[in-house]
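Reply to thread "Modeling small-molecule complexes from scratch"

Following up on the discussion above, here's a worked example others can learn from. I took a protein sequence and the SMILES for 1,3-dihydroxyacetonephosphate and predicted the complex. Inputs first:
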Amino acid sequence: MARTPLLMGNWKMYKTVAEARAFAEALGQQSSALRDGVEYAICAPFTTLHVLRVMLPAQVKIGAQNVYPEKEGAYTGEIAPVMLAEFGTQYVLVGHSERRTLFGESDQMVNHKVRAIIENNMVPVLCVGENLSQKESGQTQAIVSGQVVQGLAGLSASDVAQVVIAYEPVWAIGSGKTATAQDAEVVAKEIRNLVAEQIDASAASSVRILYGGSVKPNNIASFLQQPNIDGALVGGASLDASSFADMASAIGGAL
Ligand SMILES: O=C(CO)COP(=O)(O)O
C-alpha cells in the first residue's frame, strides 16, 4: 500500500521565537521545494509552536517533542495532550533516545504517552534504536523489537496503522555517522514484519517508518529509496531553512 512520505525536523532545544520566525520566513521563500504527496513537519520547542503554526508554509505541520500523559492536574512543568491538540499540533515525538537516557523515560511511560496522544487525535512518532554497545554485541533487533512492542502495547490495529515509528540508532544521532541505507532498511523491514506478526498485517503495511541519525540533504534520498523507509527524522540539518528545503527537494527527486 502507498504510504505518504514524511520529512520531519526535530529541533530539540534549539531556537528562540525570533529564530523560529526567521526560519519560517526563509522557508516560505523556498516553498517551491515542498511537493504535493509529501508530508512535512517540524517538532519544535513548545515556546515556538505558535509562531511556527502562524508563519510556516501551510504544507508544513507542527509537532511537539514531548507531552505528559494525563488530562490535567498537579504536574508542575508539564503539558497535557489536550493542550497540544487544541493548539493545532499534529505530531508528538515519544521515546527519543535523549529522553530515554537523559530523562529516564521508560518503555511503560512511552506507551502511556503513545496512547494519550492517539486519544487526543494526534500522531505519535515512536522513536526506537540501539546504542553502540548494543549494536556491537549484536542486540539491535532485540532492543528495537522490545521498544516497538512495548511502545505499541494495548493499541488496536487501526490505531497502530496511524502511528509513525522512527528508527534512530543512538550511535548515529548528532555524530555524523549514519547507518547505511541498506542497514537501516534491514531494521525497518524487521519492524514492519514484527508489527505484522504481533499486531496486524494491514496495520503493518500502513505504519510509516522513518530513519533518523545524521540525515543531511546529500544522503536523504538513499534512505527514502528503501522500500520500508517512508521518511526521515532530522535533527541538526532541519535547523536551517535552506537545508530543510534541500532535503524536501531531494525527497521529491527520489520518489
Ligand atoms: O535525533 C535525531 C532526530 O530526532 C537525529 O539528530 P541528527 O540529525 O542531528 O543526527
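What I'd highlight from this example: The first strand starts at residue 6 and ends at 10. DSSP finds twelve helices and eight strands in the chain. Questions welcome below.
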